[in-house]
Amino acid sequence: MSKYPEIAEKLMSLEAAVSRFVTDGCQLSIGGFTVTRNPMAAVYEIVRQRIRDIHLVCHSNGQGLDVLIGAGCVKRVEIAYGGNGRYAPTCFRFRRAVEQGWIEFEDYSNYQMSLRFLAGSLSIPFIATKSGLGSDLLRLQGFSEDIRKQNKVARKKFEIIQNPFAEEEDRVVLLPALTPDVTIIHAQYVGEDGTVRVKGLTFADVEQAKSADVVIVTCEEIVPRDFIRLDPDQNTMPAFFVDAIVKVPYGAHPTACFGFYDYDPKHLNLYKKVARDDESFKKYLEEWVYSVPTHEEYLERVGVPALLSIKANPVVGYAQGLDRK
Amino acid sequence: MSTYSANEMMALAAGRFIKDGDIVFAGTGVAMLAATAAKRIYAPKAVIFFETGGIDPVLEEIPMAVADSRVMHGTCLNSGLIEAFSIVGHRKLHTVAFLGAAQIDRYGNLNTTSLGDYHRPRTRFSGSGGACDVASFASGVITFMQHEKRRFVEHLDYLTSVGWYQGGDSRKKLGLRRGGAIAVVTNLGVMKFNETTREMFLAQYYPGIPVDKIVESTGFPIDVSGVAEATAPTAEELRILREEVDPQKLIL
Predict the structure, then answer these.
(1) Is the terminal CB of chain B with fewer CB neighbours within 10 Å at N or C?
(2) How many other C-beta atoms are found inside a 10 Å radius of the C-beta of residue A292?
(3) How many angstroms away from the CA of A41 is the closest CA of chain B?
(4) Three-class DSSP category at B34
(5) From the DSSP assignment, how many helices (H) and strands (E) are in chain B?
(6) Cβ of A133 and B64 within 8 Å?
(7) Domains of chain A, with CATH numbers?
(8) Are the CB atoms for A235 and A198 separated by under 8 Å?
(9) Strands B47-49, B23-25: parallel, antiparallel or unpaired by DSSP?
(10) Would you kindly state where each structural domain of chain B is located, as residue ranges?
């Protein structure tokens, strides 16, 4: 009998979750934002399983985006922001891939991408906004006509129409909904009943998850039913949206997980150094991903001193006084 | 007279635009310093918030990204992107956004996407993030720039975020209901925009910076007829900036 009978069928290893749901050519979205709560352990597993031709749809995914692109897993990306705060004004492998023509890309904004996930989550085909009027986001297409014929690619990037409810001239932007094949998010807690609780900021994780066919949640802790149901106002998503649950403590490293650990400046600075160069980045992937078959071994490589230095003060949510230069 | 850096002058020059009651949208870097300095020095009743959903955090330490856990501590509300953008454009609120850019034109339009051909760029940058959105919806935008000819250009390589578009009332005609560029704060001075033509003009030069140098560093003609010297930072302003806003010297 499983320790958690209510979620026994959904609870699985990282290897099983990725091999079962993340397939070559799938449309994928990952949760988090720049230096926080990227599902990095799942990203590394995707890299290790050498999944190819992913169509990544994201707002500001930072570290996870850059590793997936750098490892050659991504064929196509719809993106609002390829940066990682002060640690990468522009994500290095993303930049190189775009400049070298290695990936297909199309630009939107953060709000536009969030709205597109929201539309997908509401089961509507498109959504209206006024964001971007006059900008090149609504003038230049990134994808060719051929790409637009492919599965899960919108036939048009956007449409501008007259507001049908106004008598005066009033322009409105329509954006196509997103319905990814898979969304992977990293949460602090999943209840024994499968309820998901994200602490701190949720970014667009909920819209990303609800718009997807399959949702994988990696988490820091699986917590008792009594705990997750005691204060349900704190919860983020009911269990029935979730297809796979994987317990992976430190599963967002080197990005932060509010209340548990900070981002790892030492690792992000190492990444900054190696990611600029093709050869040194290859070595980085070998050392930190391919030759590290399990998450436990990855944490061993990060080392106890680093993990202690980023341990969050549970009251304030981050590691106070951490050397972040 | 106390000595100070360009970043310190920029943070204070931008912070002085913020009034009590303003809702301030902050990005990373100098923008973060300016927003925090504004609240601690000039406008204690201003509220700082982030596109990621962190609203009114205490900011005991400077965040290194808008998703830094430090924007989630001591807030009035931790939410997400959709909620954050419901604030940016809200008709009841006066929202001021701090942005940065790689290129700017005379109407305050910004490029943070790429240089050269969009499809195969010479240099690729991060992209819009939330910049295009706040430029569309906020009451006004203050932009931080390094003042160089290659950044102050006649024509942007890519228009990521709309300022006054093509000048005059062209922004309104696009269908954008409010907003536009308020000011550009650089390492040399402060630029504002003519109320009719919406063209950029030089409003202030920093103490010790010759006006000629600013003109030479601007890639389009700029009106300097109304220029005045900016007020140098006071010892107290610098103390707050150094001891309270960024004591770890992460950005200063």
Answers:
(1) N
(2) 17
(3) 19
(4) helix
(5) 7, 14
(6) no
(7) 5-126+179-310 (3.40.1080.10)
(8) no
(9) parallel
(10) 6-245
End-to-end Cα spacing for chain B: 19
Amino acid at B64: M
The DSSP call for residue B231 is: P
Claim: this prediction has a pTM higher than 0.90 = yes
Angle at B60 between CA B55 and CA B62, to 5 degrees: 80
Token reading at A315: 């009251």
Task: Name the amino acid, one letter, at A275.
Answer: A
Q: Considering only CA atoms, which of A173, A179, A180 is closest in space to residue A156? A: A173
Indicate the SS3 state at residue B247: coil
Class (C level, CATH) for B6-245:
alpha beta
A195-217: per-residue pLDDT in tens?
999 999 999 999 999 999 999 99
The alpha carbon of residue A1 is apart from the nearest alpha carbon of chain B, in Å, by 38
DSSP reduced 3-state for B144: strand
Dihedral sign for Cα A249, A254, A255, A258, please.
positive
B51 is catalytic: yes
* pLDDT tens readout for residues A121-180: 999 999 999 999 999 999 999 999 999 999 999 999 999 999 999 999 999 999 999 999
Q: Give Cα B44 distance to the centre of its chain.
A: 19
Q: What digits encode the pLDDT tens for the residues B82-129?
A: 999 999 999 999 999 999 999 999 999 999 999 999 999 999 999 999
Q: How far apart are the C-alpha atoms of B217 and A201, rounded to whole Å?
A: 41
- Please give the single-letter amino acid code of residue A212: A
Quick check: A137 and B160 CB within 8 A? yes
Chain A residues near residue B175 by CB distance under 8 angstroms: 130, 133, 169-172
The helix-helix angle for A40-48 and A295-302 (nearest 10°) equals 120
